[in-house]
């Protein structure tokens, strides 16, 4: 069933969009990633103009992350205090990121930088997660190994400590604030919620327990993407609500199924799956950069 | 008089050809001696069509296309007849070319180059105006029924779809870039050449069906009908087609551009309600 999108001015198959939304929603519920890093390229692929894909993708992420975070609130796996600190950092970072974005755009190299960012960050994070989860699985098979309750490193010597009860942490507020800023900068440049960077950062840098990471990440993503959607709608008129509704229909259902599925899977298995997914996306993007393209020419609307 | 004519010609060339006053009749003959709209100053005056013996009389199945939510493209039937005061002239038969053109937009064509192992957009050519859709339907092979100088004057074939380059060019040749634009848009079905798609009966009646694609943008489209003999245009005819969004599509589009803050908040509300609704629905589903 073809449907005409009023803002994008293209006609696309409604079921394709619902399916796409469902797939991304599933990821969102399962891994605590917003899915922006998947939905934006997928929308490009089916012929949605890039600015519309980025802005509407953000709107779809709001829906699936609200859906996901509510399920996590029920299970009491959201650290609201940590989420709040990350959010403050995220909004500061997003503001800085927009400035960087504009500078890069005026240099005419934004596309390349965005692509390189994706390849580098997805590659690093994917490898890190894969290595970590394989190590954890090996250890769990070895009964003599006993995991330390807390890993203390230099981060724990910083001032202004705060208790994060849900995470069982007592650390300085600067590490989460900085993680928030970094994710915000990258989110603004790469046009994503930042979940796929934040989830590993929360596990490996902040040392949060895996069970609260997903919910807390979704909490932060909800607000950052809502802010992004509004900015795009007001300044560029690029949110296509018809497109968003179709993606959302699939997305909210997918997010719920993902959360249910996530509760049944073991944390390490979940991490391996996410690591593999991240590496897959990274590999595809890297190939696009290195392989000779089918067509050396490309058309972009408007005059640069 | 000459000065006046050249001013007129310059004005007409400068503004988009379809920018017609809406109070004018829907179908209007163009190309009469007093209105040299297609005149290219480089073509000598003697070549201008003056009181043709054969004239086009034509109509469209519809002069407006309404884009609704379920819009999936549209077919337009273009039909007409050749009006003559005299007998059919001897020589090669009459030929007809019909073009349908969407409003133009600017575009940038990039060429990728391998730099430090990766492919990056290196050189670009900026095109000030190229139609977002352009279809040419003919009654025979285009290169046989239309002479290049007449193609040049009336800008009929696909290669003439682009109007002008914007800004200074920093490439050796713009040709591969414009060819790439044509090739890519042809591949997407946005630029089409349908030879033999116009059928002519008894050198008098003709008809053609032109398919407008699903990816149509809103605006004033233009249909041109050319009557040719021996590769020359003997008469030309222009009719506008209005493509506009209606109903929900129109309402959303206007809201997005007139009240962006309300539109943005509405988009967010839809997202939040949908997310909350799904969460609530699943909870009650599990309890049941």
From TrEMBL, chain A:
Domain of life: Bacteria
Pfam families: TauE (PF01925)
Alphabetically ordered keywords of this record: Cell membrane, Membrane, Transmembrane, Transmembrane helix
Record InterPro entries: TM_pro_TauE-like, TSUP/Inactive_protease-like
Cellular localisation: Cell membrane; Membrane
Residues passing through the membrane, by range: 12-40, 85-104, 110-130, 164-182, 188-206, 213-235, 241-258, 270-287
Protein's UniProt keywords contain Transmembrane: yes
Topological category with respect to the lipid bilayer: Multi-pass membrane protein
Chief location category: membrane
Homology family: Belongs to the 4-toluene sulfonate uptake permease (TSUP) (TC 2.A.102) family.
Protein name per the record: Probable membrane transporter protein
